[in-house]
Design a protein that fits this description.
The protein is α/β, with parallel strands linked by helices. The chain has two domains: 3-220, TIM Barrel (Alpha-Beta Barrel), CATH 3.20.20; 248-373, 2-Layer Sandwich (GTP Cyclohydrolase I, domain 2). It has helices at residues 11-20, 40-50, 67-78, 95-101, 103-106, 125-131, 149-152, 158-167, 183-186, 212-220, 236-241, 306-317, 325-337, and strands spanning 3-8, 24-27, 56-59, 84-88, 110-116, 136-140, 171-174, 193-196, 255-267, 280-291, 342-351, 359-366. One of its GO terms (biological process) is folic acid-containing compound metabolic process.
Length: 397
């Protein structure tokens, strides 16, 4: 299950985050940069306030990539009793040396290496972190300028980062000015945790105080792990809003039609030899009949995001060449139907460059009746590279 990490500046905000249901209490000073460190006495005091109710992490600060400096600060923070120490790895020829220096500490404290999506992260560091005993790695943003993780890395390329972390035995986290609409787009990747600060704060400003209601809204978008052996009281409407579906929805609520129209992308598609080795424009039109979860939708907890459809199409075409428009349409329909809220989907795939008009296929697929009674999370798709070359345009048929 994906956990919710809430960044706080001390014990008072930690209590708010705990009350709102955060899984990990993360200490940082938002006024001092992306990974601004709070004072060690504040970390110790917060560890006492949390008192083991949830794990506590703390950032080491925006430090220069100097092995002795990095090690000294990480040791200082580890001595406060936190469960995790987050260390930023900024672009530097000495980044691997810093990881080497931290190896002895990694044997005693869970270390998380933080890479920055807006600073051309070196994914070659992932096997280095794994060899040096790091517990995990995460993507964040270094510049808090209003741009989010998904502004820097397209969603169809994030699966590559998650899969590479997993292949090296690293826990994986995603953060970077994330907002509520980002959650349904990132949950299918199944990261170990999603990190939040600004979305939890008054007016969504990361330097403001976090607010209980904002924490709760983010919490309700991330399915909580149920204690073993405990029969939970399940709010199926909230589960549906988070990507799950109850066996029997209230028929009075009916369905909504969520659509993506005139969505044109460059696609590697076609059975003819002249269609191989380059892309052509393809237009997608998708209409999904989605179970409603409330008569009065107010926020992301109550809707099926059309971003999921667009992200899914991008992910599919990022896989490589597809021979047939029919095959591409089937893949898109299957991906949309992975979400149990979707009862029916119509997909139109239209090539735009084979003549004076468009050619293609339109299909309509319904959820099998036996599948409508399954309660499960929707699945994932993957891409091969995080930062593909300019000439790599995607996949399709």
């Amino acid at each position: 299950m994906t956990k919710m990490l809430a960044s706080v500046n001390g014990g008072e905000e930690a209590e708010i985050a705990l009350s709102g249901g955060a899984d990990i209490i993360d200490l940082k000073d938002p006024t001092a940069g992306a990974l601004g460190a709070v004072a060690t006495d504040v970390i110790r005091q917060t560890v006492k306030v949390v008192a083991g109710r949830q794990p506590v992490s703390a950032v080491a600060g925006d430090l220069p990539m100097q092995p002795d400096v990095i090690l000294a600060k990480a040791q200082e923070i580890a001595a406060t009793g936190v469960d995790y120490v987050k260390v930023g790895f900024f672009p530097s020829d000495d980044a691997a040396a810093c990881a080497d220096a931290l190896a002895p500490l990694a044997g005693k404290t869970k270390l998380i290496g933080v890479l920055f999506a807006d600073l051309e992260p070196d994914l070659g560091l992932l096997p280095v972190l794994a060899r040096r005993g790091f517990h995990g790695a995460m993507l964040d943003t270094a510049k808090k300028d209003g741009r989010r993780l998904l502004n820097h890395i397209p969603p169809e390329h994030l699966p590559s980062f998650v899969e590479r972390c997993r292949s090296h035995g690293l826990a994986v986290g995603l953060a970077g000015s994330l907002e509520a609409p980002d959650i349904p787009r990132l949950l299918p990747l199944a990261p170990d945790f999603l990190g939040f600060r600004g979305a939890l704060c008054d007016q969504s400003r990361r330097t403001n105080r976090i607010e209980l209601e904002a924490v709760r809204q983010i919490r309700e978008l991330i399915p909580a792990e149920q204690p073993v052996g405990r029969a939970a009281s399940v709010d199926y409407r909230l589960l549906a809003a988070r990507g799950y579906s109850p066996g029997a929805a209230d028929p009075a609520l009916g369905t909504d039609k969520i659509f993506v129209r005139d969505f044109v992308l460059p696609v590697q598609i076609g059975a003819y030899s002249f269609e191989h080795g380059h892309t052509q424009k393809v237009r997608f039109d998708v209409v999904a009949d989605v179970l409603r979860v409330t008569h009065a939708p107010e926020d992301m907890r109550h809707v099926f995001s059309y971003d999921i459809i667009m992200d899914g199409i991008r992910t599919i075409i990022a896989r490589g060449h597809v021979q047939l428009s029919e095959a591409l349409a089937e893949q898109v329909a299957a991906l949309v139907l992975e979400d149990p809220r979707v009862m029916q989907v119509k997909v139109r795939v239209e090539k735009l460059e084979l003549g004076p008009g468009g050619v293609g296929v339109e299909i309509e697929r319904k959820r099998a009746s036996e599948q409508a009674h399954v309660l499960r999370p929707h699945g994932t798709a993957s891409a091969e590279t995080l930062f593909p070359g300019r000439g790599q345009k995607g996949s399709s048929s």
